[in-house]
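fyi for ur records
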Amino acid sequence: MQQLADAYAEQESTTMALIWTELGEIYIGLAAAEDQAAAALRDACKALEGPEADLAAIDGKISAAQEKCSELRQEIARLEADDDREDAPDKAAAAKMQLAEWEARVTRLRSKRDFAEPSFRPRYDQRDDARTRLRIVGAAKHRVMLAQLNPFGDELAQATDAYISLRMPQLLPLLLRHDTGSPEWPRAVEEFTELAKRSGLRTDDLPSEGEAMAQAMTALMPDAAQAMADLAPNAADVMAQTVAEVTNKNLTPDYVDDYRTPAVPRIARDYMRVETLRDLGVR
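which gave:
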């Protein structure tokens, strides 16, 4: 039995090592894919450096023009509110002309930006796709690492060729223990079902759980009854044996209680005496 246990443990450790090796190959491939995704992301970000600089320059010009428009509006409001200066209306009119020119400049810059941004959209899409691929590959690497930590219980590890070909045929002890809490229990049931399908065995050929329990309980009943019969004699045998012992050894009982002896007198004790009404002077 010890040799069998050692062989089973060696087979289990070998299978675990093969599962780790298979998952390690997947991890190496994902690491290479992650490097490629990171390089693609760097290229996409580098390709956007020029367009983003152009858009930033346009945004800066728009901000400066909007600030100039705000200053002109404040100056116009101040000139229109100043009634003491005679040249205030002329300066206000000139400021309004400048404001119109600067507002037109803002409109042109915004149109230029709106025209340029769609032409850069494919590059932005490439960058977003590269980022998404990098996140996916990173999550896949993390998933493989978790599977390596639990080679017999993780679903990804159970999908490896090493587990399917080497571990699943060895799940009989788990079925015999009825270890439903084991992470391999569903795979053990799948293995049993596959064996039943290939062998033609169906559950109708097996006794029910109640029948199996009844057979196990009644299997030893005849032997137990015979053993009890041999060990525990009946009442008649006990009386016969007692009579024979008394007769053969000429033994007589030491004491026979025939209720003809006088009763033992009761002793009155002070602490057991209870006062009556006569003692209290009532009667």
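The chain has a mean pLDDT of 80. thats all i got for now
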